[in-house]
């Protein structure tokens, strides 16, 4: 595990963007990246769009979402892919044939199709204050799981309901790449920003591998890079 501590959110966004661009330049053949939505990568995508848009030499880069919260009615695409389109795919003009959507219908084929495409070269991950990553929250998945469906209890429904303007669209399940799927990637990039992530980053970096902190399993990966700003790293 390599830990990189930068000054602030802007520098964190810049370093993360540079790291993804480095992955894009790794090979002339196909490059497969799984990337995250949420608030932490907003600044990174702003920088990445400027570097990627209109660059034909990045046409070999393909993208995957690693989890999805579907709309219960199926009236539109899921929350994750919708956010990724808004943050990155649409402004960067990523062609549809290079966007490989994971959803509630095809999750059982996710690991097979990723393997047939050559595997994931890198996954960009955030981490929650509870130690979750992707859709691997405490008490939801096991370290041995591949891509899986997670049935939502009432507490989980309340947690994900704010993603929907109409709460009736809150689904009974979501799908996520499990720990074994994530660990199959060649490079894991985990980043965190702000004081609210300081406590969990201390537990992640310095603590034991435990089910209570799902992301702790990632420390066993042979190529894990952690990028933190000073606020997130303040307790290390």
UniProtKB/TrEMBL annotation:
The keyword Nucleotide-binding does not apply. The keyword Cytoplasm does not apply. Keywords: Carbohydrate metabolism, Hydrolase. Its EC number is 3.5.99.6. GO terms for molecular function: glucosamine-6-phosphate deaminase activity. Residues 20-219 form the Glucosamine/galactosamine-6-phosphate isomerase domain. Gene3D superfamilies: 3.40.50.1360. This is Glucosamine-6-phosphate deaminase. It comes from Candidatus Enterococcus ikei.
């Amino acid at each position: 595990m390599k830990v990189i501590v930068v000054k602030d959110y802007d520098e964190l966004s810049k370093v993360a963007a540079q790291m993804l661009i480095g992955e894009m330049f790794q090979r002339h053949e196909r490059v497969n990246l799984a990337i995250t939505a949420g608030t932490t990568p907003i600044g990174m995508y702003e920088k990445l769009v400027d570097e990627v848009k209109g660059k034909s030499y990045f046409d070999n880069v393909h993208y995957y979402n690693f989890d999805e919260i579907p709309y219960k009615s199926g009236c539109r695409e899921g929350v994750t892919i919708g956010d990724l389109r808004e943050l990155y795919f649409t402004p960067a003009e990523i062609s549809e044939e290079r966007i490989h959507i994971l959803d509630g219908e095809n999750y059982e084929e996710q690991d097979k199709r990723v393997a047939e495409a050559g595997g994931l070269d890198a996954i960009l991950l955030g981490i929650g204050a509870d130690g979750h990553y992707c859709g691997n929250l405490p008490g939801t998945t096991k370290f041995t799981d591949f891509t899986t469906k997670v049935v939502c209890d009432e507490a989980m429904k309340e947690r994900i309901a704010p993603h929907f303007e109409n709460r009736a669209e809150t689904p009974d399940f979501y799908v996520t790449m499990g720990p074994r799927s994530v660990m199959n990637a060649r490079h894991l990039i985990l980043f965190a920003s702000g004081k609210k992530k300081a406590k969990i980053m201390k537990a992640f970096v310095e603590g034991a591998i435990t089910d209570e902190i799902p992301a702790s399993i990632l420390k066993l990966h042979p190529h894990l890079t952690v990028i933190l700003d000073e606020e997130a790293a303040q307790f290390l």
